[in-house]
Write a structure and sequence with these properties.
519 residues, alpha+beta, 19% helix, binds flavin-adenine dinucleotide, binds NADP nicotinamide-adenine-dinucleotide phosphate
């Protein structure tokens, strides 16, 4: 089966990224995040069709070859472009015109190893399937001579890294199995622990900054679907408690799976998906719906504020992946509202595009159908808000979604915040998501202010009109005090975000004061 994420194989960087490893030289490069318009007949569906047409996309008539570095470097032109990802070499020339990030982005890895660049932009893309028909072969292994008299560097690193690595243990009572993970890290919290226990398969992942520790075993005996997670935050101890189906003594926890007891970079760990059930679908506006998904019983998953998940669904026999940012079931107005995080449901506010590949498929899901949901991703850190006095949120259309949890977190948990302002750009009044609730919140909480700006208003609109611009931003984006600490978060269509960041910088805001939500 083919699996694709139709955004791009890679499409550039919003933040400054180190491409040193990829480029093989000491350099820091900033590349704009932008999709380029594709020619007609070059959509994701068209690519899927081409890969299934039986056409020889490598030019090697099905033959696989071993590629040397020298050979790889020769294929560095658009009309003859090979790229290596994780040791496998692909001829990406046929894909060039289908890459939403544009040919130039792909060409950055032409004739070279693009693994790091690929991982930094979107490691979740199942390129193996997507480029299956473009596979040229494997890289030839180069023998490396070990330096004399010293331990190989890898070994030295491995042993020091081992001391810092989490470890695990397990014990049992008549009815329970407890797996204890010693993370050796303070400030563990429930957002950092992801557990999936289905049938006899247990997977527990602990997120520790850019690293991940995994316990994954095929359990010795059956357990019930109820899983409890206890966290001793101060000492960094995590307990995963399973209920035995039968009160028998286990001789072992189970058979370790690949990746069990490893502590590696998150970018090196594949994204894990579990199937979630569609519980409800409610209208938010004429084209946007709130999808409520239910996690399986054996899953412990919290999606941190500011992070997104990937949904994976089979469309026309192909797995397609798209990112979405979970919201709350509604916008809470105060502390008295019923708790929004029940740990079981995931709410997604999704705009259905009339020609959208994925959103049309989502819209056709029936209540009770299943869809795969990934572990969370994203680089937003709550601590960015916790030290701010003014929080300014710039949202365009569904770019409002990350602002929902952020708003709630800021207004309920951050005491140093003096002002929270949402500047919400939409085309028409009918497009404004949760307009009434936002207005109610502004009335209720004097720290919060909302400003709606429409680019295509009807003649009855008495509010602000316009597009994101330097003058609009200088009117609405202000510090409450001359020296107040400010955080400005921005999210919307890629060009909206890109322009917004530039205008903010032109207005004198620093990179540290701006957070742009991107994939
Ligand atoms: P597509 O098939 O990609 O098309 C979307 C629209 O654009 C259609 O109208 C189509 O006709 C048009 N179009 C497609 N390609 C072109 C082109 N080359 N030129 C001109 N027009 C074109 N969306 C939400 O609704 N809610 C969220 O919470 C959310 N969170 C996100 C989080 C992140 C991190 C990111 C990056 C995106 C998020 N999105 C969200 C957007 C989402 O991932 C999808 O891009 C969106 O749902 C559209 O998918 P689609 O397959 O239906 O549309
Ligand atoms: P939309 O309705 O098309 O537009 C919303 C507002 O943005 C409108 O005022 C629109 O004005 C403006 N806008 C659109 N394109 C612009 C551009 N090129 N330059 C300046 N302003 C522009 O938006 P939408 O359909 O809801 O799309 C929302 C976008 O947000 C999607 O691209 C989605 O991928 C993204 N998103 C990202 C994340 C994330 O975390 N990264 C999360 C959620 C959503 P005009 O009248 O000028 O078009």
């Amino acid at each position: 089966m083919l699996c694709v994420l139709d955004l791009h194989l890679w499409r550039g960087f919003e933040n400054t990224c180190c491409l040193e490893a990829f480029l093989g030289k000491q350099t820091w490069t900033k590349v704009a995040l932008r999709n380029v318009p594709l020619k007609p007949g070059r959509s994701l569906m068209d690519w899927i069709r081409l890969t299934k047409s039986g056409k020889d996309l490598t030019g090697l008539k099905g033959r696989l070859t071993e590629v040397t570095e020298d050979e790889l470097s020769k294929h560095n032109k658009k009309e003859d472009c090979w790229i290596c990802i994780r040791g496998f070499v692909y001829n990406v020339t046929p894909y060039m015109e289908y890459h939403p990030g544009g040919e130039d982005e792909l060409m950055k890895a032409a004739g070279a190893d693009g693994t790091d660049l690929f991982d930094q932009v979107h490691r979740w893309v199942n390129y193996e399937s997507m480029l299956k028909e473009c596979l040229v072969g494997r890289m030839a292994v180069k023998p490396v001579a070990a330096p004399k008299g010293v331990l190989p560097e890898k070994k030295v690193l491995a042993s020091s890294a081992k001391d810092l690595s989490p470890s695990y243990d397990w014990f049992q009572t008549d009815s329970l199995i407890t797996i204890v993970i010693y993370t050796k890290q303070k400030d563990m919290n429930a957002d950092l622990v992801i557990v999936d226990c289905q049938d006899k398969q247990l997977r527990g992942e602990i997120i520790m900054d850019d690293h991940s520790y995994l316990v994954e075993v095929d359990l010795d005996h059956a357990v019930s679907e109820d899983v409890a997670v206890n966290i001793a935050e101060k000492v960094g101890k995590v307990e995963i408690i399973l209920n035995k189906k039968d009160n028998i003594h286990w001789k072992m926890l189970g058979q370790p799976c690949e990746g069990h007891n490893t502590f590696i970079k998150r970018t090196d760990r594949g994204l894990f998906y579990r199937k979630c059930k569609l519980i409800s679908k409610t209208e938010v506006t004429h084209d946007t719906k709130l999808f409520c998904l239910m996690l399986p019983r054996g899953t412990h998953l919290r999606i941190p504020t500011g992070q997104h998940v990937y949904l994976k669904h089979i469309i026309a026999g192909t797995e397609v992946v798209k990112p979405y940012t979970p919201v709350l079931p509604f916008l809470p107005l105060d502390f008295q509202e019923p708790p929004c995080h029940d740990g079981v449901h995931i709410y997604l506010m999704i705009k259905i595009y009339s020609h959208g590949l994925f959103t049309q498929a989502l819209d056709h899901l029936q209540i009770g159908d299943y869809i795969s949901v990934s572990n969370p991703e994203g680089n937003f850190k709550k601590s960015q808000v916790q030290t701010s006095e003014d929080l300014l949120l710039l949202a365009g259309g569904t770019g409002f979604t990350p602002m929902v949890k952020l708003l709630n977190f800021a207004l309920t948990e951050v005491s140093c915040l003096r002002t929270v302002k949402l500047i919400f750009f939409n085309k028409t009044e009918d497009d404004i998501l949760w307009k009434n609730r936002l207005e109610q919140l502004a009335l209720k909480d004097e720290r919060f202010e909302v400003q709606f700006i429409l680019s295509q208003p009807s003649k009855d609109w008495v509010g602000k009109q316009g597009k994101i611009s330097s003058s609009l931003l200088s009117e609405f984006v202000k510090r409450s005090r001359r020296d107040s600490k400010v955080l400005i978060c921005i999210c919307g269509p890629a060009p909206f975000t890109e322009q917004g960041v530039q205008y903010l910088k032109d207005l004198g805001y620093s990179q540290e004061e701006i957070h742009a939500f991107t994939a």
